[in-house]
Amino acid sequence: MTDTTLQADTVIIGTGMAGITLARELRKLDGTTSITLITGDDGAVYSKPMISNAFAQGKTPQDLVQKSAQTLAEDLNVEILTATHVTAINRDDHTVTTRSPHGDGVMGYRNLVLAVGAEPRPFTVQGKTAVPFPAVNSLADYARWREGLIDGARVLLIGAGLIGVEFANDLAAAGYRVTVVDPAPQPLSRLLPDALGAVMAEALGGIGVDLRLGRVVSTIVPAPHANTAVLDDGTKIVFDQALSAIGLIANTELAAAAGLTVDQGVRVDAHLATSHDHIYALGDCAQTDAGMLPFILPLMAQARALAQTLSGTPTPLRLAALPVAVKTPALPTVVCPPKPGTPGDWVIDGTGQDFRALFQGPDGVPSGFALTGGETRARQALAKDMPDLLTI
After folding, report:
1. Residue 147: which residues within 8 A CB-CB, separation 6 or more?
2. Which of 52, 196, 345, 384 is least surrounded by CB atoms within 10 angstroms?
3. CA Rg value for the chain
4. Do the beta carbons of residue 372 and residue 350 sit within 8 Å?
5. Hey, is 368 helix, strand or coil?
């Protein structure tokens, strides 16, 4: 059965933080325009960043749910199509083709917004097929993974980036035995200078996290009661459950199939417009001139600007300096990375766990910073002096 009667002024594909924030911002500006959100899951509202410190918050996966899709739809006066997948964008006639348990459908739009997010980068290693190495990219993922955890389990965590260190801290503090493997010499190697990465490594080690840095897993040997990961130096790590946190890849397949320009993400201009009229993108799937920015503050800025544009006031995106708080109670950390490609070096000062690092260019002017321990209190004052990541 195909339904060709559905139509909305704005159709948003995705009910993650990007899609929902955009709907909220649109509704603030226009109380009557028709908005439809389409999602392949149940549309439940939750804060994705809260997943990686759920134990510290004392919350189960169910506790993280803030609203049901029905409640959100009523609050915002929008329509939400759950368990519905968009299979094609028909850009010439301004429709999308959908598939759901109720059958195929066609949804018309005046403006279409891609808020389809990103998928975990797959972890591949010999023997992996016999042992699950899931990644957590949604509340449903987390619920499935946490359901299998037993008290005191030995957890092998692949990746010491932002999500990896947050999960490591949360699990170790909750009594799990955590081993982290990463080829980089320090945790958070893409965000922190090496000296502060070493401070983070020491802090995580202090709460029991076993860091195997500069190493990769070469083989997985499954066993009924204990799996073994063999590292490239021959070290063997016995574990009960694994978790992969090696980054995200933007979901660009739908956009590419529709003939939109894609690179690392869906390419958008200053107004978050794609290469085809009336189709926009934001969030983890969108690539602006500032690159891929899978953080909360850029997403919020994108949603506010795009809501203005869709409401009839074309508003270019401005991205101010964006401090990122790392949820590692073992070492409170805030980092405001410089714009990619910016020349300069880190200048570091501090002692113990309290460090301040400024990324200074040849002219001595800071364009980024990293703070740990008590120095994190300076985040707002420093952020005001940082250059914008994107100014039109």
Report:
1. none
2. 384
3. 22
4. yes
5. strand
Alpha-carbon span 266 to 307, nearest angstrom: 18
CA distance 9 to 278: 11
Q: Are 12 and 38 in contact (CB under 8 A)?
A: yes
Q: Where are the alpha helices (DSSP H) in the chain?
A: 17-29, 54-57, 69-76, 139-147, 162-173, 194-206, 253-257, 296-310, 379-384
Distance of alpha carbon 85 from alpha carbon 100, whole angstroms: 6
CA distance 232 to 108: 53
| Domains of the chain, CATH where assigned | 2-119+248-310 (3.50.50.60), 122-244 (3.50.50.60), 332-384 (3.30.390.120)
- Nearest Cα to Cα of residue 39 among 114, 104, 93, 95: 114
How buried is 5 (Cβ within 10 angstroms: 0-12 exposed, 13-18 middle, 19+ buried)? exposed
Burial per residue of 143-176, b for 16 or more beta-carbon CB atoms within 10 angstroms, e otherwise? bebeeebeeeebbbbbbbbbbbbbbbbbbbbeeb
Q: What are 136-139's contacts with CB under 8 Å, separation 24+?
A: 136/51, 136/52, 136/163, 136/167, 136/243, 136/245, 137/248, 138/41, 138/48, 139/44, 139/46, 139/48, 139/51, 139/61, 139/64, 139/65
Distance from chain centroid for Cα 69: 21
236-249 residue pLDDT tens: 999 999 999 999 99
247: left (phi over 0), alpha (psi -120 to 50) or beta: left
- Residue 207 φ then ψ, to 5°: -105, 10
pLDDT given for residue 391 in this prediction = 62
Query: Residue 52, class by beta-carbon neighbours within 10 Å (0-12 exposed, 13-18 middle, 19+ buried)?
Result: buried
